[in-house]
Amino acid sequence: MRQRDTPDLTVFIASRGASCDECHEDLGRRAWITLGDGGRAFCLACADLDQLVFLPAGDAALTRRARAHSTLSAVVLKWNRARKRYERQGLLVDTAALARAESESLSDAEARARRRERDAERRAELDRDYLASFAGRVRELFPGAPPEREHEIAEHACRKYSGRVGRSAAAKALDAEAVRLAVAAHVRHRETGYDELLGSGLDRHQARDRVAQQIGEVLRRWQGPVGDSARSHVRPTSRGPAATRGTARRPCAGRPRRRSTPRRNRSRRTRTS
């Protein structure tokens, strides 16, 4: 068994025509080569790697075991033009090592399948709990929303791998602002003519500006009769008269307002005293 800290050799799948600098054989396109000092290319036969067999990437357990049992191995890389980087295609390993790894993988395949099922069920359960918590938070902040609408918002915002606000760390902490953004996005598509504006060719930012006031009105209506206790957790979507209403200071009830003495009278009193 090879040592874990032993680095793998690297084999490249050439994207252009290549030839071996040792045997001078024309290898053609997509040849498997290794690179030596000074960028010299060698075929697998001249590099003494032609006795290895190729194990494609995809089965992590099999790859890990085959590499561990193989005295000699090499990583196979191929250039991806679109991503402009080398990507791993698989591993060259010893034939006996691959056979041993396959035997071990078959012996515990059922156990690994059960483990994957348990992990999938655990992840699904966690997602269900998160969706329920998110939907409950939507209903808490927007009690006037139509029935069952909180579940639709949660399922859309929290969809896996979507990159939406529901997958953010703030949303997972049920932050009020993150929930508000998810509800606002739902209102934009379901309660306004935003999609029609986009379909007519209007720019996304211009379309959002046109429906911003309507979204704010729907959000305020959905906050419902709870009033200030709910609105204190959710800030308005736009800065308008409704956003600044009620900010003027009012005198405290039961306390008489103190009248200040005019500056002219105060100066007169100072001279007479």
Q: What string gives the helices and strands in order?
A: EEEEEEHEEHHHHHHHHHH
Principal-axis shape equals elongated
Which percent range fits the helix content? 40-55%
How many strands, which pairing sense, and closed or not: the largest β-sheet? 6 strands, mixed
The value of Rg in angstroms is: 34 Å
Strand order of the largest sheet: 5-4-1-7-8-6
Count of all domains: 2
* First-last Cα distance: 106 Å
- Enumerate the spans where pLDDT stays under 50 for 5 or more consecutive residues: 226-256, 265-273
Overall average pLDDT: 78
What structural category arises from helix and sheet content? alpha+beta
In total, the number of strands is 8
Give the DSSP E fraction (strand runs of 2 or more residues): 5-15%
What features would you describe in this structure?
- There is one protein chain.
- 47% of the residues lie in helices and 14% in strands.
- The protein is an alpha+beta fold and 273 residues long.
- It folds into 2 domains: 99 residues, no CATH class; 124 residues, no CATH class.
- The protein has a 6-stranded mixed β-sheet. The chain has a two-stranded antiparallel ribbon with strand order 2-3.
- A hairpin with a 4-residue loop joins strand 7 and strand 8.
- Helix 3 crosses helix 4.
- It is elongated, with a radius of gyration of 34 Å.
- It starts with 8 loop residues before the first strand and ends with a helix.
